[in-house]
Amino acid sequence: AALLVARKDLAIELRTRSALFSATAFATLAVVIFYFAWDQTAVAPVDLAPGVLWVVFTFSGLLGLNRSFAIEQADRAMDALMAAPVDREAVFLGKALGNLVFVLLVQAVAIPAVALFYNLPLGGVWPALAALAVAASVGLVCVGTVFSAMATHTRLAELLLPMLALPFFVPVVMPAAQVTARLLQGRPMEEAWVWLRLLLAFDLVFLVACTLAFPYVVED
Questions:
Q1: All residues at 6 or more sequence positions from 75 whose CB lies less than 8 Å from its CB, including other chains
Q2: Residue 172: partners with Cβ closer than 8 Å, 6 or more residues away
Q3: 209: pLDDT confidence band, cut at 50, 70 and 90?
Q4: 186 CB-contact burial (10 Å; exposed 0-12 / middle 13-18 / buried 19+)
Q5: Residue range 78-94, pLDDT digits in tens
Q6: Pick from 69, 25, 219, 53: which is nearest to 137 by CA?
Q7: How far apart are CA 20 and CA 146, in angstroms?
């Protein structure tokens, strides 16, 4: 059931491509702005790039998360989805899986853009960086999906979602940025292991908590 929900959302997005184009355009533009505002004599690229990457990732991901439940508002499709003979936890997991694919597609654009503009040596670290992007995306989409379901019924959903979600993004983005910095600097993986464990712990907590909370969030 979760896979069917995810396939439905991704099929809608692939037909319209509006959110994906908006998020990738925003990510690319943000990287360019950061690049031209960067003083190369003050901050080394390997020190600045992790912060740029995860700031861009966070805000571009919000564009897709906001649309996750907004597409269900037409013709009250959300009511039909809730009336379907499947567990609501499966609906959440399907929505989260669709959002995960969306966020990873944005990352597939943002990471090469940051590497290109800041001339980062990704030759030996790109598999670890890709795995890190997946791990961080899991925590972000779990939190973002739940708060998107809460905010979508309000008139100020575009404003309310960032206000609710961003504080919960910090425990995911902060360790991800720390691990990224150590990967790019060529530091021993042991130095990043503490931050990586913290990221994985928050992923697990958010996945379980958000899955259990979702049925109550969508109650009338």
A1: none
A2: 136, 139, 140, 143, 199, 202, 203, 206
A3: very high
A4: exposed
A5: 777 777 788 888 888 98
A6: 53
A7: 20
The pair of structure tokens assigned to 126 is: 């790109």
Predicted confidence at residue 150, as pLDDT, reads 80
**For the segment 19-72, what is each residue's pLDDT rounded down to a tens digit?**
778 888 888 888 888 888 877 777 777 778 888 888 888 888 787 777 777 777
- For 42-69, b/e burial (b = at least 16 CB within 10 A) is eeebbebbbebbbebbbbbbbbbbbbbb
pLDDT band at 161 (very low <50, low <70, confident <90, very high): confident
Selection from 53, 207, 195, 204 nearest residue 133 by Cα:
53
Those residues whose C-beta lies under 8 Å from the C-beta of residue 122, and which sit 6 or more positions away, are 111, 115, 129
How long a stretch of residues is the chain?
Answer: 220
**Distance of CA 204 to CAs 107, 119, 167, 201, Å?**
21, 34, 17, 5
Residue that the structure tokens 């009511």 belong to: 79
d(CA 43, CA 38): 8
Which residue is associated with the tokens 């575009």?
Answer: 158
Contact 168/162 with Cβ under 8 angstroms? Answer: no
Q: Which of 68, 76, 60, 90 is CA-nearest to residue 150?
A: 68
For residue 17, what are its two tokens? 């491509």
